[in-house]
Every structure is written in structure tokens, then in C-alpha cells.
Design a protein that fits this description.
mainly alpha; Glycosyltransferase; two-stranded antiparallel ribbon
């Protein structure tokens, strides 16, 4: 009898423990906890680049991991431009008395000081803007970053640094863009010059916009990268974000062709819906196409849609936060993403995957992953962060919950 009772007690304990574990599985992180994960990821990326640039030791200390050692000469501008493009919306929130606000102050100061060195010809970390061909790409990413933080970056530069920055951005004009997404790099530089100085090269500003508008749209929010369509994430890395940002500037300055903005915003919104559906129930996404080592940069266009508050009505900010947080946790769980000195390694999820990269990829290139963090530019009070945990489309669909049909746009 005692033995039977003992067995029953053990079974009850086991059932109770199982129910406790099951209940614990249903406890999800809050928006504040998710934001902490994002901020920690951002600072891990930013710290080695900005600290060294501010101390004039970037060229001295930054490694160059690449299948093509010849890429090193341009690697530093790649790291700086791409990182700033991604973190600038967060910097633009400015300092405040919170721990995060004080952290922002630190990185605003580092960025402003670093950019002063980057455009100073007498600095050891003077960066190359005017030699063919790669600097056009990263001058554009830096220009996009400046547009995303007009108060905290451009507004905190001294007069000399502003003048030198304009000089360096103009140096990229000697570089003729290829007949593909590179046309948007020229457009992006000119959009920044127009906004910051009131003047630009109108042909370089608009050529890429008109090509994508008139010749390269393939349907359902997808553009070709030039005349041909590529199955990759360049619609997110470059095409939608730069089309949208350039058109916003053109519209503000009443440039002919800016009426395309309304159509582009509709397409950007639709593409954001597609990107959200690419995130699996587990928080992964298809490893397909060129430049996959840009990691969460795959979601540049989705993050920008959240930042601009142009998400589709069927996709809530909360579900985008939860989906992207799952991806970030999966992607950066492995410490092998960084070398012992904190520099990001070339790879996808870890640091021993260099052969998943292309010849043009190097350590600096990989910092485009920072553009996946754009929603940090939304304040902590925004519903993107304050919404409760929300399941995303694939998580709901694969668990048998109701999901609305997906429809293309005309």
C-alpha cells in the first residue's frame, strides 16, 4: 500500500512539474526585454568601429577578412558607412537621463568625433571616397545615415567637418555607377547633398529613380537589379530603402519625378509584408542569394517600414518586433560571430563560414547587418516596443491559427 501511494505521489509530482514547465514556456519577453537584446547587439557591432575611428586607430586595428585581400583599401569606409546607416535612427533619439539615453550620448560623441577624423586629410583614419569603384557604395550608405540623424550627427558637426564631409561626398562623383542598384548609390549621395547644402547633380539624383520606376519593376513590389531579376535580398539591402529615402528628399525639394513617392511607398509596404512572411516559426529565414553574410541586413526594408510606420495594416508592429527579435537571438547567440577583439567576422551565423561570401565581401562589408536594427529609432514608448508579445505570420500559420490570405498588389 505504501509503495502504491509513493508511485501515485511521484506521478502527481511529475504531472505538476510538467504543467509548471509548460506554463513557463508561455512566458514571453516584454518589449523592454526585447529592446535590451537589440541595444546589446547594436553596441557589440558599434563599439570596435566607432571607438577606433574616434581614436584614429581604425586602419591600424581593424582586420580584413576576405576571399580577396585586395579589398582592404576600401574596407574601412565600408564598416563606417554601413554601421552608421544602421544605427543613426537610434542615435537621432538623442541623449536623456535613462541608461540607454546615456549610452546613446556615448555613441553620438564617438560617431561625431570619428567622422571628423574620417574626412580630415591629416588624420591617419582619413577614408577614401574618390577612387573607383567601391567608395561610391559606402559614401551612399554614409549619406543615408546622415539623412537619418540630421540633428545628432550633422547638427553636432563643426563647420570645418561639415565642409570636409561635403567635399568627400562630392569626390564620389568621379565614380560611374554600374547599370543596376549602383545607380541608387549615386542618387543617395546627391539626395544627401541636396538636403544638406541645397544643391545637387540632378542627373545623378534622378537617373536611378527613373530606371527603377520606368524599366526595372517586375511586379508585386519586386524590382530587378538592373534589367534582370535576381533571387536575393537586394530589394531589401538597397533598392526599396534607397528609393524611398531619395524620393522623400526629392518630394521635399519639389524635384520633378517625386510624384512616384506614393507608388513607391505602396510597393515598400507590400515588400515589408513579404519579408515578414519570410521569417519562420523558429525565427530563421531562407539563406538564398548574394551577400547573405549581411545577416539581419536582410530585413533593412522591413525595419525601415516599421520606422516610417508604413507597415501593412495586417502586420502589427508587435509581431514584427517579436519576429525580428527571434531572428536576432538566433543569429547572434554564437560568440563566434565576433573575433576576440570584438570585430564582426565574415559569415552567416558564426565565424567559420567565409566561403558563403562573395569575392567583394570583407570585414567592413559585413557591418551592413546593422541596418536590420533600424526600429531602435522608435522610442521605447512606441507601440513597436510597448505592444505585448505577438505571434508572427508563420508562427501562427504553422500552429494552425487563423491567418489571412496573402495577395499581390497591382
Amino acid at each position: 500500500m505504501i509503495k502504491v501511494n509513493s508511485i501515485i505521489i511521484l506521478l502527481l509530482i511529475s504531472l505538476f512539474s510538467s504543467s509548471e514547465i509548460k506554463a513557463a514556456d508561455q512566458i514571453h519577453p516584454t518589449g523592454a526585454e526585447d529592446r535590451s537584446v537589440w541595444v546589446n547587439t547594436l553596441t557589440s557591432l558599434a563599439n570596435p568601429v566607432l571607438t577606433n575611428l574616434a581614436n584614429e586607430t581604425l586602419k591600424k586595428n581593424m582586420p580584413c577578412e576576405s576571399l580577396d585581400p585586395g579589398r582592404k583599401v576600401f574596407s574601412h569606409l565600408e564598416a563606417v558607412g554601413r554601421l552608421i546607416c544602421g544605427i543613426s535612427p537610434w542615435l537621432e533619439l538623442g541623449p536623456d537621463n535613462t541608461p540607454e539615453g546615456q549610452l546613446r550620448k556615448k555613441y553620438i560623441d564617438l560617431t561625431v568625433k570619428g567622422l571628423k577624423n574620417a574626412v580630415n586629410p591629416k588624420s591617419p583614419d582619413y577614408l577614401i571616397f574618390g577612387e573607383p569603384h567601391q567608395p561610391l557604395v559606402d559614401a551612399a550608405f554614409l549619406a543615408q545615415g546622415l539623412l537619418r540623424a540630421p540633428k545628432q550627427l550633422w547638427g553636432n558637426m563643426d563647420k570645418q567637418t561639415r565642409e570636409q564631409m561635403v567635399t568627400e561626398l562630392k569626390r564620389s562623383r568621379i565614380i560611374k555607377p554600374y547599370n543596376n542598384n549602383w545607380l541608387l548609390f549615386a542618387s543617395m549621395v546627391e539626395a544627401a547633398l541636396l538636403e544638406l547644402t541645397g544643391e545637387c547633380d540632378n542627373e545623378r539624383l534622378t537617373q536611378g529613380i527613373f530606371k527603377f520606376r520606368d524599366e526595372w519593376y517586375k511586379g508585386d513590389a519586386l524590382y530587378g537589379d538592373g534589367p534582370r531579376f535576381h533571387m536575393d535580398y537586394y530589394n531589401s539591402f538597397v533598392i526599396h530603402p534607397m528609393l524611398t529615402d531619395v524620393l522623400v528628399v526629392m518630394n521635399k525639394h519639389h524635384i520633378e519625378g517625386s510624384d512616384f513617392l506614393s507608388t513607391q511607398l505602396q510597393r515598400h509596404t507590400r515588400y515589408a509584408a513579404q519579408l515578414e512572411r519570410f521569417i519562420s516559426p523558429e525565427g530563421t529565414f531562407p539563406v538564398v542569394g548574394r551577400s547573405i553574410v549581411y545577416r539581419i541586413g536582410v530585413f533593412h526594408a522591413l525595419g525601415q517600414a516599421a520606422l516610417m510606420q508604413i507597415l501593412p495594416k495586417e502586420v502589427s508592429p508587435g509581431q514584427v518586433r517579436c519576429a525580428l527579435t527571434a531572428v536576432i537571438r538566433n543569429m547572434f547567440t554564437s560568440p563566434n560571430n565576433f573575433d576576440p577583439n570584438g570585430w564582426i567576422k565574415v559569415g552567416f551565423n558564426g565565424g567559420e563560414q567565409i566561403h558563403i561570401s562573395e569575392y567583394y565581401i570583407n570585414t567592413g562589408s559585413a557591418y551592413l547587418c546593422a541596418v536590420g536594427l533600424l526600429p531602435l529609432g522608435l522610442p521605447a514608448t512606441d507601440r513597436f516596443w510597448s505592444d505585448p508579445y505577438t505571434e508572427w505570420t508563420n508562427l501562427k500559420a504553422w500552429s494552425g491559427k487563423e491567418v489571412k490570405a496573402d495577395h499581390s498588389i497591382k
